[in-house]
Amino acid sequence: QVQLVESGGGLVQPGGSLRLSCAASRSIFSGTAMGWYRQAPGKQREMVATILSGGLANYADFVKGRFTISRDNAKSTLYLQMNSLKPEDTAVYYCNSGGTWNFPGAYWGQGTQVTVSS
């Protein structure tokens, strides 16, 4: 069964940190580009960061210097370390598999809510 399962979301104050995790089925993780996308209420889903199988990462301008994407190929797990969070980072964050540098692939997780508020 193909699965992407996100965890780690929650409520955090501005300036705080969260670490998201995405546990993936090996068949859609190994050798595949992975990514994090987000969707805020009333807005389109947008790319946050992507990472190729070898570890090369790409970031949206609005998270550069604050977020770090990484992957553990042995555990088939994707991570997103989010620091210096802002209220505008509030969104549902989705894990994605099979995409390219800037575009999502066919597989999506169920999403995890991140709320940045005081």
Could you provide a short overview of the structure?
The chain is mainly beta and 118 residues long.
What features would you describe in this structure?
- With about 120 residues, this protein is an all-beta fold.
- Helices cover about 0% and strands about 45% of the residues.
- Strands 2, 4, 5, 6, 9, 10 and 11 form a 7-stranded mixed β-sheet that branches. The protein has a 4-stranded antiparallel β-sheet with strand order 1-3-8-7, with no helix packed on it.
- Strand 4 (about 35-40) and strand 5 (about 45-50) form a beta hairpin.
- The chain is globular.
- The termini are far apart.
- The mean pLDDT is about 95.
Task: Please render the helix and strand layout as text.
Layout: E1 4-7, E2 10-12, E3 18-24, E4 34-39, E5 46-51, E6 57-59, E7 67-72, E8 77-82, E9 91-97, E10 107-108, E11 112-116
Parallel strand pairs: 2-11
Antiparallel strand pairs: 1-3, 3-8, 4-5, 4-9, 5-6, 7-8, 9-10, 9-11
SSE string = EEEEEEEEEEE
- Percent strand equals over 45%
Radius of gyration: 13 Å
The span between the termini is 40 Å
Low-confidence stretches: none
Quaternary form: single chain
What do the pLDDT scores average to?
95
- With helices defined by DSSP (H or I, 4 residues minimum), what is the helix count? 0
Helix proportion: under 10%
What is the strand tally?
11
